[in-house]
Amino acid sequence: MPIRPGMTIPLPGPLHAQRDRIVELADLGFTDVWTAESDGGDGLTPLALTSVWEPRLRLGTAILPAYTRAPACMAQSAASLADAAPGRFVLGIGSSSNVIVERWNGIPFEEPYRKVRDLVRFLRDAFTGEKVTQRYDTFEIQGFRLGIRPEQPPSIVVAALREAMLKMAGREADGAITNWLAPGDVPQVAAALRAGAGGDDRELVARIFVCPSANADVVRAGARRAIAAYMNVPVYAAFQEWLGRGEQLAAMWSAWGAGDRKQALGEIPDSVVDDLVVHGSPDACRSRIQEYFDNGVTTSALAILPFDPDLDHWDAVQSLAPAAGR
């Protein structure tokens, strides 16, 4: 599959003022832009603007939670953007987490595997333009017909962290999205995705966390806070255990569970930080990012982390761009 270097948007600053930077992303050699949806902007508005500002960029969501838009609303949202940007939109959906779904949105976080699988199946049905009357395992649709018929239905990729979800993504969707993994973890993830697809190739998108700074102590201190925040969410803890980091993170989990946050941060080894967050000189970062591609990632969605206060975000974008290494 083609290698696609991507960047996370929106960039810092007002969304309305980002047109020139978005255009420059394409000039710098990025092929994709990817959004998320948690506690900041929604996942679709930045892509809608980008679809008009820069037609060279492919647009992707990484991810829209499967719970926070009802199925018909999700189909309408996806079809609208696919209609606005024919052949350039990739719909990334996933279960998200109990924190975002349940604590922040007041929606029960139940049966995440079946919920995501059922939504993928419904979207496939809806994108045909036929009337959908169907009982899925986690919801029922009575007589919905999508009134927008995009020239090209969007590709669907599924957020997947462990074997069962990765295999489902390979079987039911066009690929998978993953994050918080090292280059050395990619073959294990890619193998599960390929197994679900019956040996066929699927797109594998990786959100890669990067801080191009040589100030290792500052970066590691910030990275420890981010790692602790994520790795104490059950789905991410289980992912790291599946990848084989359970022993390395056991002391952190123990301290966190006991309520000692400071001790928990101190228990995260440098080796784990260096596995999960790309940092160092821009050349070292680009080399490390290439390892993800070499090991089976097909699409990157770089997420620049502002751990070094002396780091300018746009300077970091330029230093990590594909054109920078030529």
Major sheet: 10 strands, parallel
Under the CATH scheme, which architecture of the largest domain would be assigned?
Alpha-Beta Barrel
Uncertain segments of ≥5 residues (pLDDT<50)?
Answer: none
Multimeric state = single chain
CATH topology of the largest domain: TIM Barrel
CATH class of the largest domain: Alpha Beta
Kindly provide the radius of gyration, computed on alpha-carbon positions and rounded to a whole number of angstroms: 19 Å
Q: Which key phrases capture this entry?
A:
2 domains; 45% helix; 326 residues; globular; TIM Barrel; alpha/beta
Question: What can you tell me about this protein's structure?
Answer:
The protein has 326 residues and is α/β, with parallel strands linked by helices. It folds into two domains: 252 residues, Luciferase-like domain (TIM Barrel, Alpha-Beta Barrel), CATH 3.20.20; 65 residues, no CATH class. The protein is built from 14 helices and twelve strands. Strands 1, 2, 3, 4, 5, 8, 9, 10, 11 and 12 form a ten-stranded parallel β-sheet that branches. Strand 2, helix 2 and strand 3 form a beta-alpha-beta unit. Helix 6 packs across helix 7. The longest helix is centred in the middle third of the chain and has 16 residues. It is globular. The two termini are 22 Å apart. 45% of the residues are buried.
